[in-house]
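Q: My labmate handed me this sequence with no annotations at all. I'd like to see what the chain might look like in three dimensions before we decide whether it's worth expressing. Could you predict it?
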Amino acid sequence: MRVPEGSGRRSLRRACVFSAVIAVSLAVSGRAAAELQQRPGGMVYDSHNNVTYLANPIFESKKYMSEVVGQSNPSGKMTLAQARDFASGLSYGGYDDWRLPWAGVWVTSPSCPNVGSTCRSNEIGHLFYDEVFSAPYQAIPIYCSSKVRTESGNDRNFQYSVNDRRWENCEGTFLYYSQTGPLVDSAPIFTVANCDPQYEACWFWNEYPAYATSPFANPWVFGYGGTQSTTPSPDNQGFVWLVRDGDVASVVDGDSDGIPDNTDNCPAVANANQTDNDADGSGDVCDGDDDNDGYADTSDNCRLVSNPTQSDSDGDGAGDECDSDRDGDGLDNALDNCPSAANVDQTDTDDDGLGDECDLNDDGDDYPDAADNCPSVPNNGQDDLDADSIGDFCDADLDGDGAANQADNCPIDVNVSQDDADGDGAGDACDFDDDNDGVTDASDNCALVVNADQADTDGDGAGNACDADLDGDGAANAVDNCLNIVNPDQHDQDDDGAGDACDPDIDNDTVANGADACAGTAGGAIVDATGCSITQLAPCSGPAGTITPWRNHGKFVSATAQAVKRFREAGLLTQAQADSVMTSASQASCGFQ
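A: Here is what I predict for the chain of 593 residues:
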């Protein structure tokens, strides 16, 4: 975020930093050339004051205001508090003891109207008035930025001076050590900021030395370009030019990696990149435990990632913390829906982004897999018809009768035999009309036998089509000689298999019972049209149809003769048969008293 400038700040005499390149010839003074000495890494040593200047403080100050303060498009100007924080927190060139320049020591007043010894006594004043200028108030020669220089066609042309207001078109300011070589923007001795072109001065924060005796408590700012020092409010904003005490020329670099030993995290081993994975101050090239997890790099299965447990789920030698495929299933962790559980097929039943192999609730219902009777099929009801601990939604045999659901003609009714009386595909156990006769089983008197008429001869509730004793006489149909007629005695006079109760010719004399005048004719006897045999027409016991005995034997023989005559006339007897009958009659004892 942008840090607003103090609303109550006083003007720094509207101190501006101008947009130009300051190129000064230090050859104007032999002493000056000797006192300013360029050092590697963007630093300049002032042998007079025994301090080292940061050659490009504006770059570092802009970075501070952007990254630390959060200011967008910073100019590099900052308040006193920010300047002090910037200086104390900066580590540059292997040094972290940078500070603001000291102001001069004034006895009664902070002003230096004559640019005399009081102004020269502060570090920046000495730099400008003793090292840079040959005389007080000398105009500072200006080089414009690379863009303007290119347009001018002459990189060595002094475009404008401070006193010439046309310099406001320049963009950057560079103070070079010498004019005797090519002007290279990337290697200036000093660089200051783009300034507000409305004014002729740039101001820099200075600290008032603690050892000085002065009534002025606030630090001073120093302006150059013919201006004076003053004492501003700390809330005002100025630029910062950092210095540190002493020279940096005697830097030791034992491993020749370009990093001074005093800041090199591996002074004995070259490591220009200074990589320090675990930030323990020891560079990786000389750190025996780069991730600081207690395991030496030579035995650590994740050399650059801390993993004290050394876990290696897939046993591939790369610890889980640094293994791009922890479960070894061929899928990168970032793409694997179960990074720690091998699942090549990446099955994710409930599409929740977690593969089934590591999802504690594969189907996404209200039951975790451990308690779910269908872990892969949502079933919040947990219904289990056959109580086999497999929920109905995933049970291949819902009723547990041994027949798979797809083949079971009654999937939810136990019917091991798979009976289907009417062959309609619905098993009898679940068919409401097992015989498909149009009468539902609940009211069908023969549920498994077609009997649309529901006939029940003996009224016993079992339809004739399925009644084992149709007439209810106690004789099973299979042995009953009169299926539909009650005849518990099963009498069959003529032994023809048809009981007398239902035999149309009980005596089997070929004369139906209704026309038979002589029932009970002996088997094999010759009968006349009335169904009577000679014996029945002339019985030995007495005249037919009476209980009276024959009066004599002759009456019996006479009656027999009459019957034989009728049979002979009817062609029922041959003469021989007739003679035989009469012989028997004459010899019989019938009619004798």
